[in-house]
Amino acid sequence: MNTMSSSGKRGFSVRRLVLGAMGAGLLALTAPAARAQAPAAAPAPAPAPAAGGGSNMIETIRNRGTLICGVSTGLAGFSAPDSQGRWSGFDVDYCRAVAIAIFGTDQNRVRFVATTPQARFTALQSGELDMLARNTTWTLSRDTSLGLDFPATSFYDGQGFMVKRSLGVTSARQLDGATICVQPGTTTEQNLSDWARSNRVTIRPVVIERQEDNVAAYIAGRCDAYTTDASGLAGVRSTQQNPNDHIILPEIISKEPLGPLVRHGDQRFADLVRWVHFGLLAAEEFGITAANVEQAATADQRPEVGRMLGRGGDLGQMLGVDNRWLVNVVKILGNYGEVFSRNLTPLGLQRGPNALWTTPGGLQYAPPFR
Ligand SMILES: N[C@@H](CCC(=O)N[C@@H](CS)C(=O)NCC(=O)O)C(=O)O
């Protein structure tokens, strides 16, 4: 399949992928040149907002009794259903946290809707969803032309590559000529083409619509490498029979600030989602955990902790929810560090840039609670 050239550089023979076993409809082979004409992740123009200008989403959600949250179709660590259809993951916890902030102690007032990369924005624009928490990268075009808002960056990520250990490849630079499985409608697909051009590497993208078919194609050897956000690679690797048979290459080729999205038109709901993220961060910064939050709410003498936990002032009311909203969130889900440890540490992910700002290299920072 791949050969070492006389210069010692690894080269990949050109392959023709045969559609069939995977289902021809699932494999969309795309020549890079053809793609260049119409970038797959070009944002769809925003339709008229469904529950748009002037709407009160918090009230709508409260009256409905359920938050409708878009997640991925299944990505370990971020959003994946178990055999009983119960969702868990880092993004799932963001949906639950917003629901807890609105409804109080009941964490099950969320309806999860699985969305593909291509369907996610339309689902939010059309009003099918109240919010999206789905490993989605904040970019300028998405922020400005979709009629949507990114309230916060919940996870700083970057794109990487995974290959089978047996391939003997140790650097992305050795992927010249390789076939690379990638999902359409993602920044991943665009970054791959930018990276190949900047590094004068020829790659053959194999663009496959559904995540599970993408991974299956990589496992079956239809692609030499699989590319997505590094966190996604860790998630996919963790669910393989022998994770150790796959290596994540050291190069990170992009910035992928991931976070929740809401529709334009209701800044109060955007504020709530933003401060749910900051609340999780601030709880960690002040050492407030699921185990001690109730006690801290009554006894912690630090003024900011008192305000955060609703003992002094009306910060919750200013957000349109109960003053004890953060007590409820942290009691059920833990602080940001606890959410991270539960969902992402088992995948082998380090805090890295997602450490608090108080740790060298950490970028996660909450503005003051006052
Ligand atoms: N962060 C990138 C990629 C996000 C993405 O959709 N990644 C894929 C590959 S890991 C995914 O989550 N697929 C799950 C699915 O299709 O449900 C973006 O916002 O475009």
Summarize the helices and strands and which ones pair or pack.
Elements: E1 2-4, E2 10-12, E3 27-29, H1 32-37, H2 57-64, E4 67-72, E5 80-81, E6 87-88, H3 90-103, E7 110-115, H4 120-125, E8 131-132, H5 140-145, E9 148-149, E10 155-157, E11 159-164, E12 179-182, H6 187-198, E13 204-208, H7 211-219, E14 225-229, H8 230-238, E15 246-248, E16 256-258, E17 261-263, H9 267-285, H10 293-299, H11 303-308, H12 315-319, H13 325-333, H14 336-343
The site of glutathione has 19 residues, from helix 6, strand 14 and strand 16.
Please describe what this structure looks like.
This protein is an alpha/beta fold and 370 residues long. It folds into three domains: 2-10 and 20-37 and 159-254, Periplasmic binding protein-like II (D-Maltodextrin-Binding Protein, domain 2, 3-Layer(aba) Sandwich), CATH 3.40.190.10; 57-156, 3-Layer(aba) Sandwich (D-Maltodextrin-Binding Protein, domain 2), CATH 3.40.190.10; 267-345, no CATH class. Helix content is 34%, strand content 16%. The chain has 14 helices and 17 strands. The chain has helices at 32-37, 57-64, 90-103, 120-125, 140-145, 187-198, 211-219, 230-238, 267-285, 293-299, 303-308, 315-319, 325-333, 336-343, and strands at residues 2-4, 10-12, 27-29, 67-72, 80-81, 87-88, 110-115, 131-132, 148-149, 155-157, 159-164, 179-182, 204-208, 225-229, 246-248, 256-258, 261-263. A six-stranded mixed sheet has the order 3-13-12-14-11-15, sandwiched between helices. A five-stranded mixed sheet has the order 7-4-8-17-9. A hairpin with a 5-residue loop joins strand 1 and strand 2. Helix 3 (90-103) crosses helix 9 (267-285) and helix 3 (90-103) runs antiparallel to helix 13 (325-333). The longest helix has 19 residues, at 267-285. The protein is globular, with a radius of gyration of 22 Å. Residues 72-75, 116-117, 135-137, 183, 186-188, 211, 228-229, 232, 256, 258 line the site of glutathione.
